[in-house]
Design a protein that fits this description.
222 residues, 6 helices, 39% helix, 26% strand, globular
Length: 222
């Protein structure tokens, strides 16, 4: 099992929840009978794609989960809610000058699907913990979104429920490598004009919730 997190706080919470041995950027151990490697990828889509490629080549995992926090676009989502992504889109890809739709890649892909079996397992684990959990779409871009009008535009154009900076690129790369991957996000803030303040306030608590969820998921799949 390969786990990925971008932020240091996210990775630390997962490492502690699963009892992994700390090391420089890549943490390993055994939890609930699973050999687990946790890669601290760094922020952004290039970092995400690079981390997934590295992990697949170095460790050959059978399945993977990208975990982290996200800003809410859907007004039904609140801080510390869990969002399991059914798919994700790179909102800042724009080749509409060539007749493509916003977010559509040159390959023709637009909404990149997460692995259904892994995603369902995570959803069930969240329910077992009585966590507020939702299915949804994630929008990924290489810019922290803190503008309410732009957040509203993403909601309208992509029907996205949350925004972050890695998930769609990670899913796309995993798909190309034949690696089943799920994408789970804990809501840390609303993607509005106070997002930078709320992000720091909720990051630690949101990350701990992710650790609790992944521990339950791995226990349930022994």
């Amino acid at each position: 099992m390969a786990l990925f997190a971008a932020e240091g706080a996210e990775a630390r919470a997962l490492r502690e929840a699963l009892g992994l041995e700390p090391s420089a950027g890549t943490h390993r151990g055994v939890f609930a009978g699973h050999e687990v490697v946790l890669v601290e990828a760094g922020v952004g889509k290039v970092a995400a794609a690079s981390a997934v490629t590295y992990a697949q080549a170095r460790f050959e995992p059978k399945m993977a989960i990208w975990a982290g926090v996200a800003g809410a676009l859907n007004p039904r989502l609140h801080a510390l809610d869990v969002l399991i992504a059914h798919d994700a889109v790179q909102w800042d890809v724009d080749i509409t000058a060539f007749g493509r739709k916003p977010g559509e890649l040159a390959s023709g892909e637009r909404f990149v699907e997460a692995d259904a079996e892994l995603s369902t397992g995570l959803y069930r684990a969240a329910l077992a913990l009585n966590l507020p959990v939702h299915w949804g779409r994630v929008a990924s871009g290489d810019r922290f979104l803190a503008d309410p009008s732009e957040a509203q535009r993403l909601r309208e154009v992509f029907a996205a429920d949350a925004v972050e900076m890695e998930g769609a690129a990670a899913l796309w790369t995993a798909g190309r490598l034949g690696l089943p991957m799920a994408l789970v996000r804990t809501i840390s803030d609303g993607a509005g004009d106070e997002a930078t303040v709320n992000f720091e306030e909720f990051l630690e608590a949101a990350s701990r919730r992710l650790g609790e969820l992944l521990a339950r998921f791995l226990h349930s799949n022994r």
